Inverse folding.
């Protein structure tokens, strides 16, 4: 949800808002990393802790996504956000700004999808999507 907020506020301001508002968003996003980075580390870390030695099935699929999520964040998203914040502060909305912005939006969307898949698999492991069967032994009428 944090990354989706960054993504949507970027897309909406760049489509519809003046440069001053875009700059406010671009400068605010790196501050959001102070929240996002520890939360992601805690999510991954607690996942590994709960998984113990298990590495098969859905846990394996979740683990395989983690290097992509982490390298996407460290190599693309954080440097891009810092670069865009400095460009926006200098009011330089040039071709380089928009090229890096496109790259950031694509990388951000990739991480939203990968984290969403990890969330889905987490809910699956906990049986959150299972439809409860009606109790066949019950004498109460089933509505
Ligand atoms: C950072 C991305 C991740 C997200 C967004 C995520 C999300 C979730 C969610 C939503 C649940 C369900 C919690 C519930 O319904 O109570 C869950 C459970 C779980 N996740 Fe993750 N997870 C992530 C990473 C990982 C990793 C890297 C591992 C394994 C190394 C992992 C292992 C587990 C396990 C074992 C459970 C089940 C916990 C239990 O049975 O109590 N997760 N996860």
């Amino acid at each position: 949800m944090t990354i989706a907020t960054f993504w949507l506020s970027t897309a909406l301001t760049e489509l519809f808002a003046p440069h001053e508002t875009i700059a406010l968003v671009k400068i605010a996003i790196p501050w959001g990393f102070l929240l996002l980075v520890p939360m992601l580390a805690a999510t991954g870390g607690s996942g590994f802790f709960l998984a113990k030695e298990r590495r098969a099935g859905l846990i394996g699929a979740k683990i395989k996504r983690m290097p992509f999520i982490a390298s996407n964040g460290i190599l693309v998203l954080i440097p891009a956000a810092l670069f865009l914040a400095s460009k926006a502060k200098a009011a330089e909305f040039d071709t380089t700004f928009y090229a890096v912005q496109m790259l950031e939006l694509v990388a951000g969307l990739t991480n939203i999808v990968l984290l969403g898949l990890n969330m889905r698999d987490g809910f699956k492991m906990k049986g959150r999507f299972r439809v409860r069967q009606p109790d066949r032994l019950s004498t109460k009428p089933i509505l």
Summary: Residues 40, 43-44, 47-48, 50-51, 59, 62-63, 66, 115, 118-119, 122-123, 125-126, 128 surround protoporphyrin IX containing FE (CB under 6 Å).
